[in-house]
Amino acid sequence: MAEYPPDHNDLVREQSFLTHLIELRERLLRSLLCVLVIFLALFYFANDLYSLVATPLLKHLAVGSTMIATDVAAPFLTPIKLTFFLSLFLAMPYILYQAWAFIAPGLYENERRFALPLLISSIALFYTGIAFAFFVVFPLLFGFLTAVAPEGVTVMTDISRYLDFILQIFLAFGLAFEVPVATILLVWSGFTSVESLQHNRPYIIVAAFVVGMVLTPPDVLSQILLALPIWWLFELGLFFSRKFTRHQNDVKATIHAGEK
Predict the structure, then answer these.
(1) Which residue, 122, 149, 172, sits at the end of a domain?
(2) How many CB atoms are located within 10 Å of the residue 199 CB?
(3) Quick check: 177 and 132 in contact, CB under 8 A?
(4) Tens digit of each residue's pLDDT (9 = 90 or more) over 5-36
(5) Could you give the CA distance from residue 104 to residue 215 in angstroms, rounded to a whole number?
(6) Does the chain have fewer CB atoms within 10 Å around its N or its C terminus?
(7) Would 167 be classed as within a structural domain?
(8) What domain range includes position 59?
(9) What burial class does residue 109 get, using C-beta atoms within 10 Å of its C-beta: 0-12 exposed, 13-18 middle, 19+ buried?
(10) Of the residues 141, 172, 203, which one is the last residue of a structural domain?
(11) pTM here?
(12) Distance separating alpha carbons of residues 54 and 51, to the nearest angstrom
């Protein structure tokens, strides 16, 4: 049976695929290196960083109350865990830049002009969500939770459980603040329209409260404090989606007029 030489196009596709895999590996390694560098720079301050993020709770504890550690290794491992996640959060702009640099060559010029501002906005909104959680939600939430403790009960939170709690809140609010970007992307991709989103607004508001219930710990206050921003940010995304749709229609009209 005769053997045929491999098709030239197949070889080109295979080489292109391998090139992309090598580039992806390099960008992943750069991202990991960035996280590691930040982690090593912050490692010495791990205990100070934990004291900082514990401040919103410590302010509302009764006089003489402190946080506790129920696991033997918790006083050492918990601040390190916080430092790692903080390093990951701080490295996020660089990680997203590496992702952008990987996919940007495959985009059209108009897609790059549209996607880059969305990428920058998503980073800013993610950090805004975390800041909102720390400076607005935590004081209200911990003030409420410590105030409703039954008489005779001293609030003394375990440091590991506290860290898991606040990381969950940070992630929930960071993701929730991406709603405007998600709304614009849904309209831009043609998956839905501004009119459809307006028509389904009541269901989206209900969904915002369901998301607040799922993503946050089981207390009503934090659920409401997450659901309301999701609703407001959806309205913000809807506002900019209208502007984007109007701009798209103007561009299409201009192209049509030029063809005539």
Answers:
(1) 172
(2) 10
(3) yes
(4) 555 555 556 667 778 788 889 999 999 999 99
(5) 32
(6) N
(7) yes
(8) 24-172
(9) exposed
(10) 172
(11) 0.79
(12) 5
Token pair of 148, please? 């409703």
189 part of a folded domain: yes
Assess contact for 168 and 222: CB atoms under 8 A: no
SS (H, E, C) the chain: CCCCCCCHHHHHHHHHHHHHHHHHHHHHHHHHHHHHHHHHHHHCCHHHHHHHHHHHHHCCCCCCCCCECCCCCHHHHHHHHHHHHHHHHHHHHHHHHHHHHHHHHHCCHHHHHHHHHHHHHHHHHHHHHHHHHHHHHHHHHHHHHHHCCCCCCCCCCEHHHHHHHHHHHHHHHHHHCCHHHHHHHHHHCCCCCHHHHHHCHHHHHHHHHHHHHHHCCCCHHHHHHHHHHHHHHHHHHHHHHHHHHHHHHHHHHHHHHHHC
Chain centre to alpha carbon of residue 169: 11
In a domain, 1, yes or no: no
Contact assessment for residue 56 and residue 138, using Cβ atoms and an 8 Å cutoff: yes
In a domain, 8, yes or no: no
pLDDT tens by residue, 59-105: 888 777 788 988 899 999 999 999 999 999 999 889 888 888 888 77
> Which residue in 51, 52, 181 sits closest to 126, CA to CA?
181
Task: Say how far residue 3 (Cα) sits from the centre of its chain.
Answer: 53
- CA-nearest of 212, 138, 224, 134 to 176 is 212
CA dihedral 100, 105, 107, 112 (to 10 degrees): 60
Verify that 61 and 158 share a domain, yes or no: yes
pLDDT digits (tens, 9 = 90+) for 181-192: 888 888 877 788
